Amino acid sequence: MTNEEAFLRIDFLSQELNKHNYQYYVLDQPSISDYDFDMLMNELILLEKAYPQYCHSDSPSQRVGGEVIKKFEQVRHKYPMLSLGNTYSESDIKDFYQRIMQSTIETENEIEYVCELKFDGAAISLWYENGLLTRALTRGDGIQGDDVTHNIKTIPSVPLKLRGNYPKSFEIRGEVVMPHKSFEMLNAQKLEEGSTPFANPRNAASGSLKLLDSKEVARRKLDCILYAFYSDDLPFNTHSEFLHAAAEWGFKISPHYEVYSSLEGIYSFIHKWDSARKDLPYDTDGAVIKVNDFQLQKMLGFTAKNPRWAVAYKYKAERVLTQLVSVDFQVGRTGAVTPVANLVPVPLGGTTVKRATLHNADVMQNLDLHHYDFVYLEKGGEIIPKIVGVELSKRLSSAPAVEFILNCPECNTPLIRMEGEAAWYCPNSDHCPPQIKGKLEHFISRKAMNIDSLGEGKIEMLFDNQMIRSVADLYQLTYDQLIGLEKVISVDSEDRKI
Ligand code: IVH
């Protein structure tokens, strides 16, 4: 291949991959199979290795990650990254609406408001110069943020190169979100490795941006939705014109926005999305109402912390009442004992909830839980539902309080509590079955020895058949013992299939 041929092929592959990427991740209209996409990407990576002089910073090969940085550079924001004032009721929204009406009494035209969803992730600022992504900063303290450009480049919906007629230099802001599917995949992997899963997609998104290894970020399958434009000279008059233009330049803009002039219109948006948002593939925690006209925005200005021209309306976490059936006490790998509530099954946020963790003795005591109490369950930003309170009017007068146990439910050893710690522990670490099993499972997990051929099921089986009692026993297992076990497991799983 001549230099010129290589240059042309790299250019062709880059354009093809950018096009398919845009169709898949921004428009949600796949135009090629995953296999064919990977083939084109592999060819591009190989060619760029052989001809590095033709590898550009906007190449789609940047998406797979690879750059590992030592630490984040702190960079000052050109425009401070403020937050929105929060409102929680229709009357708060009415106050906002009337305040704007009073401050714009001179304005003759009807004032328009753009209603958008409030995406629950990590705020991001992106800079584009001559159509190329040059810098991505986290919010940080609002004055300066971390340079996370290497990580942002791995997000397929973030354009590395813009299309169409874009301004020479501008900043665009939005939210990096972790879609539910990516979140479940990541947490399943965390559990398998024996590490702590993320509490919610928001924490997972911001935690991912702070990774030093961009390859790991690429694996986490983040998404990025843009919603604000910053430039010294604004090429549009309204926010809705910006949203429209940004979509043409290749950004992912949420299609779920509306323009209203009336208070009733704003209320209707808020009501509609309170339930409709549950069908979206990522978390939203409210609506945002923005004055559409940029000149009016400028006139209204900012308070010390928030813009006066926009406000957030926060949705209430969904809450249901159900009854406590019993409390189990589970012993973990470290010996810590966790109380878990068994509940009368109840639908909440798209799933049926039967159990909820009570975390530790302090949490249990603060709730002052009694047997058969009716409890309120909430699913806020957290995926795992929480018991947030007890309905005292429904308490049976004879019901005794739920007491924390004194002895280990597995080996009967008296529990101990270290000073300053919330958890009660079983100190019998060498002989308490769940502690031994937990340690063995941790030992074989991906984060530790990464023993592929063993999983939690086999460890359980080996332990229950008294073939292992410690890590050392794993290395004494014979071929015949393991083959015998394989058969038991495959027959067992066949049984389960039937
Ligand atoms: S506009 C001056 N629009 O919510 C702030 N923010 O406290 C302009 N957010 O930090 C922000 N969805 O991270 C805006 N549609 C949306 C948003 C949104 C989520 C976040 C953003 C901001 C926080 C507000």
Q: In which range does the helix fraction lie?
A: 25-40%
Main sheet characteristics: 7 strands, antiparallel
Q: Which of globular, elongated, flat, extended, rod-shaped describes the shape?
A: flat
Q: Termini distance?
A: 58 Å
Bound molecules: 2-(butylsulfanyl)adenosine
Rg from C-alpha positions? Answer: 28 Å
Structural category is alpha+beta
Look at the structure and give the mean pLDDT: 90
Instruction: Report the strand count.
Output: 18
Helical element count?
15
Unreliable stretches: 491-498
Q: Multimeric state of these chains?
A: single chain
Q: What fraction strand?
A: 15-25%
Report on the architecture of this protein.
Residues 491-498 have low confidence and may be disordered. It is flat and about 75 Å long. Helix content is 34%, strand content 22%. It is built from 15 helices and 18 strands. Helix 1 runs antiparallel to helix 2 (34-50). With 498 residues, it is an alpha+beta fold. The strands form four sheets. Strands 12, 13, 14, 15, 16, 17 and 18 form a seven-stranded antiparallel β-sheet that branches. It has a five-stranded mixed β-sheet with strand order 2-11-10-3-9. It binds 2-(butylsulfanyl)adenosine (IVH).
In short:
By secondary structure, the protein is α+β, with helices and mostly antiparallel strands. It has 15 helices and 18 strands. It is 34% helix and 22% strand.
Entry keywords:
15 helices; 498 residues; alpha+beta; 34% helix; binds 2-(butylsulfanyl)adenosine; disordered C terminus
